[in-house]
Amino acid sequence: MLAENDAPTETDEALLDRFQRGAFDYFLRWVNPGNGLAADTSRENSPCSIAVVGFALSCYPVAAERGWMTREAAALRTLATLDFFWDSPQSPEPDATGYKGFYYHFIDMERGRRIWQCELSLVDTALLLAGVLAAAAYFTGNDKKETAIRARAEALYRRVDWHWAMGGEGTLRQGWKPEGGFLHYGWEGYNEATILYVLALASPDHPIPDDGYAAWTRTYQWENIYGYDVLYGGPLFMHQYSHAWIDFAGIRDDFMREKNCDYAENSRRATLIHREYARRNPHSFAGYGKDFWGLSANDGPGVRLKIDGQERLFFDYAARGAPYGPDDGTVAPWAALASLPFAPREAISALRHFCARYPGCAREDRLPSSVNPTLAGHGGFGPHGWVSPGYYGLDQGLVAMMIENYRSGLIWNLMKRNEYIRAGLRRAGFRGGWLAEETFGS
Amino acid sequence: MLDRPRGPDSFPVDRSDLEHLESARPHGWVNPQPAPCYNLVVLGGGPAGLVAARGAVAFGARVALVEDDMIGGDCLNVGCVPSKTIIRTSRLYADMENARHFGARLDGGIDVDFPLVMDRMRRIRQRISREDSVRRLAEEGIDVFFGKGRFAGPDTLEVEGARLRFRKALVATGSRPLDPKIPGLDEAGYLTNENAFNLTARPSRILVVGGGPLGCETAQAFARLGMKVVIAQNEPKFLPWEERDAAQIVSDALAHDGVEIRLNTEVVSVRMEGREKVADLVNGDWKSSVTVDEIIVGVGRSPNVEGIGLEAAGVEYDTVRGIKVDDFLRTTNRRVYAAGDVCLKYKFTHMADASARIAVRNALFLGRSRMSPLTVPWCTYTDPEIAHVGMYVIEARERGIPVRTFTILMHDVDRAVTDGEDEGFVKIHVREGTDRILGATIVARHAGEMINGISLAIGSGMGLRALAGVIHTYPTQAEAIKMAADAYNRTRLTPLIKAIATRWFSWMR
Questions:
Q1: Distance from A189 to chain B by nearest Cα, in Å?
Q2: What is the pLDDT of residue B75?
Q3: Residue A233 domain-assigned?
């Protein structure tokens, strides 16, 4: 076991390679190869989450490049996935796979039909489609499979009726159900949805109006917190999901021009605020510090216990955030690692600390959804406290992609070539940087 | 003698209530003989009416005050005063739950004595009511009339057969809880702020309908007093106009206190099953029912505009927005002004007070004071409290004003940490590139006290830079405001200024 203060025997590159491979392997073990559907979690009877499929599709090119899969196998898996989404039922029926080109958040792993009466999810469809477009950008060969991948990807993207998904309002809705129509969660402020707006703006057939993005950004708050000027979003995933595909460094929309910043720099600052929050540790949770940080949307203990005379509520799966909370001492180690492109030194330091301090919690080189060391010795939990069992596909996909972006920029470069991504960013008002170049790397 | 005032059957409950009643509507009160003509007739004896009547009579005006119910209005009798009294006790119980954390032991457990809680509330209400007792008002020279006042013409108001002629009149009839119009609710019976404080026995389970200030305050306070509380809010968040982080903290606090939260949820019907009330709830496609002992409704307020002869006086009104007034609080009858809840969007006691002062100045002293420049603060008294003043960020951005917010977390404020009250934040919004304060939101246990410092700064045109120079007492929680101003000052240290300073110091060595 590597003690924290010992000089690391494993280089950063080797460490990252190991955890990237471990994360990618999720898609070898918990994907139905017949239809490409990826499980939400590694737990028994987990359904497919369509967002996880988007991450999986983005990771197959990584695996092909790194030799973890042959290009042919990656193409075969990708095409099976795209074929499934194209052929699966699209209708207002309550057990369809999707409607209006969007897909239900959770579908069963075999037939791909809606389960749990879940919602037709806009943001999860956007993450799925981002993966679809990444695949199309990678498989540029002229053979039958790769040609078919590109055609399918184009058709899947163009089928989505983004304008319908505004539900007659000025901004995109969060979801829709056949039983009750559009959902009303009240999205307000910055979050992970930038890629959703970029895709919705660029649609050749069913775009949203340009002012839809402006209407959303009007709810942004630019705050000076702990000495950092930042566009606030509480949980770290809000600063990571869109960035897994789009390199926001050097490109700016109206908001960021006004603030003389960009969204990548903003993610760096948000990351450092999380780290600083953990260092200050206002609620005195166990383990928190400069190398144990990262609050996000993740699994949780779901118990209520009295600790040191104070009644504490430990949430179930929930979005946690810093510095406003909620915070119940549950940290997502993958969220720190997924900050790698923004704050590499801090992210690697956090990973090394986690491996050393919580041995056995990163089994098979995969990070769990979350751990809560405050619960060590309470409520029957072990010496490390509560540890989320199994793995979540979203976490593994994000980690694999962010490590790749840090190592080679592969996903970012693929997406820079995509005409829809470029058009959507431009319609949202982004200018400068790599967008100023006519085409990128072709 | 007049009829006994309206109200729930349980009022008056005890000696405090009887004394309160004697103060706010004395037994055997005989209306005075009306003067031939009044400088000011005030319809409504709540906060706005009292401020107006007292302000005018202090300058020698002949004033009549007409009240249908009890002097003091909703705020004293059924609003702020009783609710804050109960909230105080509920905070005590919450602190007792954390006694060990504060280094104290409560080995015997905690029993909520609900009758004692309500008894304290009644005593305090009686104590505060003494200040505005009817006899005291009469001694000050105000002709106090009890009865249903109604305009009989553009310059006359009738009450209990008496005709009061006036040069100017002020309508300050306030507002009442909005009827939520839920099928079956009237039949099953429900409580509002008008009668919830007359409970003498603690219900075990309650449903609170509405997630605005009243609903959130009630849900949390009653949960802390040991009731099982479900709160149903038809919006995706509590306090819908407050910013996301503030509303989230309220939501977390309610959850922590054991309140069952139902957002995006409509109460579609209510029925009685035996002695229990069953409410049917709908959230999208999810239907459920809750069984409770009492239902408390707080979904907004309606202006009291009906039955007071506004038509006869030529005063235009709307049953939703209230009496139509201009920026000088003048109605469509030049002799008649309005103040408080009956005409204002912001239905707060402090706005009733502020508007009454403006109305009196304009009505009697040829004033030209406007409502629009007022800086309006408000506070929701949950724990932590949510206080706001001035513009919200979204309002500024919609007007094209670039905004920068300086945020201090209460967990960085020493006194908040020593008090174990470190949940929340101070956010001060300034116009980008300047130190001009546009507005502020404070979430803290004493946010209502703290916001006044920022209201003062905005009202006096003080910017963050000047605020940083104001010495704040250490250690206090209000020091957070100074810390925000210091954070602003630090951003003035640009790399260029720092480079120049560094060179200066190296030259000085």
A1: 8
A2: 66
A3: no
Mutate which of A285, A324, A330 to test chain B, going by most B C-beta atoms within 10 A? A324
Q: How confident is the model at residue A80 (pLDDT cuts 50, 70, 90)?
A: very high
Residue type, A408: S
Q: Name the residue among A231, A221, A331, A225 with its Cα closest to residue A283.
A: A331
| Residue of A129, A126, A116, A193 lying closest to A155 (CA atoms) | A129
User: Does the beta carbon of B407 lie under 8 angstroms from any beta carbon of chain A?
Assistant: yes
For residues B233 and B262, give the distance between their C-alpha atoms in angstroms, rounded to a whole number: 6
CA dihedral for B146, B147, B148, B150, sign (positive or negative) = negative
Q: Give chain A positions within 8 Å (CB) of B393.
A: 221
B402: contact with A, CB 8 A cutoff: yes
The pair of three-digit structure tokens given for residue B225, joined into one six-digit string: 């007093």
Please report whether residue A65 resides in a domain. no
Cβ <8 Å between B487 and A224: yes
DSSP string across A318-369: EE--TTT----S-B-HHHHHTTTTT-HHHHHHHHHHHHHHSTTSSGGG---S
Q: What is the pLDDT of residues A326-368, one digit of tens each?
A: 999 999 999 999 999 999 999 999 999 999 999 989 989 999 9
For residue A380, what are the domain limits?
Answer: 256-394
**A325 neighbourhood in chain B, CB within 8 Å:** 248-249, 252
Which domains, from first to last, does chain B contain?
15-177+302-364 (3.50.50.60), 185-299 (3.50.50.60), 384-491 (3.30.390.30)
- A311 touching B (Cβ < 8 Å): yes
Closest A-chain CA to B246:
A324
Structure-block tokens of residue A147? 């040609």
Q: Which two tokens stand for residue A2?
A: 């590597």
Contact present, A206 and A164 (Cβ < 8 Å): yes
From the list A184, A224, A325, the residue facing B407 with the nearest CB is A224
Residue of A117, A180, A309 with shortest CB distance to B101 = A309
Cβ of A186 and B235 within 8 Å?
Answer: yes
**Chain A: residue whose CA lies nearest to B491:** A227
Of A174-188, B259-273, B443-457, the least confident: A174-188
Q: Which tokens in the block code for residue A90?
A: 């699209």
Tally the domains of chain A.
1
User: Is A308 domain-assigned?
Assistant: yes
DSSP symbols for B47-58:
HHHHHHHHHHHH
- The pLDDT-based confidence of A267 (bands split at 50, 70, 90) is very high
DSSP B233: -
Q: Is residue B311 within 8 angstroms of chain A, CB to CB?
A: no
Query: B-chain residues within 8 Å CB-CB of A186?
Result: 235-237, 240
Query: Which amino acid, one-letter code, is at B116?
Result: L
Over residues A307-329, the pLDDT tens digits come to 877 778 899 999 999 999 899 99
Verify whether the Cβ–Cβ distance B432 to A258 is below 8 Å: yes
